[in-house]
Amino acid sequence: MLPFGARLREQRLVIRFALASLVAFVALGIALSAIIARQFRLRGEAQAKAHATFVTDSILRHELERADLRGPIDPSSKRFRQLSAFVRSRILEGAGASEFKVVRIKIWGKTGTVLFSDARALVGMNFGLEDDIREAFEGIPQAGVSNLTAAENVDERGLADKLFETYVPLRLDGKTGPADAVVELYQDYAGIQREITDGFRTVATALLIGLAVLYVLLLPIVFRTSRTLSEQNVRLGQQAHRLEELLQKEQQRVAELRELNRLKSNFVAVASHELRTPLTSIIGYAKTLRQPQFADDGASRREFLEAIERQGDRLFQLVENLLMTSHLEDSVLKLSISSFSFPELVRDVVEGLGSSRDQVKLALAPDLPSLLTDRQYVAQIAQNLLNNALKFSGPGAECEFGARWFPGSLVFWIADHGIGIPSEEVGRVFERFYQVDSSSTRRYGGIGLGLSLVQNLVDALGGTVEVESQLAAGSTFTVTLPLVHPSVAERYGAGTRGGGASDPGSNGHRAPAAAVESGVPAAAQTA
User: Fold this and answer.
1) Where does 57-198 show beta strands of DSSP type E?
2) CA distance 3 to 7
3) Where are the domains of the chain?
4) What is the value of pTM for the model shown?
5) Given a cut of 70, is residue 322 above it in pLDDT?
6) What is d(CA 452, CA 326) in angstroms, rounded to the nearest whole number?
7) How far apart are CA 410 and CA 367, in angstroms?
8) Is the pLDDT of residue 526 over 50?
9) Which CATH architecture has domain 236-332?
């Protein structure tokens, strides 16, 4: 039995802890609810913006003609009636999910004149170029809640209590560059709000229930813990150091778990974006090919099919990287050792780049020996490094693919003249899912697996990979591989021309001076 004073202190401790925990749980619930509500609102508006962009690029663009954008379309003309019927049947009444339903369309000319609208009274009116329209003409879609008090939005006041407007650049040829016009689409915010509210209600309810259950379960633990602490108070000093060590380990684990959760969330968002982009292009071109006006247009059909093939190759590469990473994660990676010519492998990889192959400058030594290792993995390494170099180089910029060999090893490098990597980021580029810019709106695509996969495959082949980079000057990735895979060299003591796997030249010694003078990058001058 505890003394009366100890029991009283224990009761006070329990009451204070219970009240403090209740306040903390309530504050936590409010804070998390606010954050979740904001995230759902941003997601709902982003989905509405994406829907408006899809409607413009995949539906409306294919119906418009360049003549339609030369000036306001006469509301009494046959062309106006045709466009109005198309917009009403395909967009206002039949396009997209109901929560992102479009209720009004305007097409703006470069002088701020309404060239077309489903509200014929607006056609021909000039409201000037606002900042949102001007930025849309520069190729940057703009979106936000409509200001129904503005002059150009007077006619939309009766459509809904709150509208969401999106300004989408319209390019009739579907290519990049200056916009031919800007399409403004109004969406009823009530549908977006329902999507936000439904998602928030589900998450908030689960959060509140979880916090309440956790709080209820915590109270009996507090009672028992407080009694135990009262009885063992004399030993707290001896355990303080140990508890501090345990706390540091727990904090480290929590930090690692948070980082893993962040990487998972970023990967899901980026992977969804990267997979959706080629799929959207393939679907769009396929639907376009179904249009009767392209039945006899061989040039356009070839162009569309080439675009579909490019996007299909891009999608295949993404899936291939994901599958290879999954095999690495599950430790089911199997080697297929064979002897092959490295120059032939390089030619196959470069040919697989399609139209980008002309940007690759080869600098292969003429006397490269054969490799006895896994050809598919070497090709995967080269392909990922080449795709990385081309992606971060400017349009049409060349990158160099070079190779030399030293006793017992082959060194190849891929150098680009792209944007480079900040010095503080160089050490992290081989981390899985890591990207210098991982936002879904970043300039360069990818899901952060290519370089991580390169590192894992190089390790599996018994080699090394290094990177040298300078901002605005470019990056050089250098791979060193043994001429004979270590598993073969250990089992049979195999060697190749110029030295075997056990040759002292393959144990990290610097290459001869002649190799340094042969044009090999600094990172490739050790083998």
Assistant:
1) 102-108, 114-117, 142-145, 163-170, 181-188
2) 6
3) 1-231, 236-332, 337-524
4) 0.41
5) no
6) 12
7) 11
8) no
9) Orthogonal Bundle (1.10)
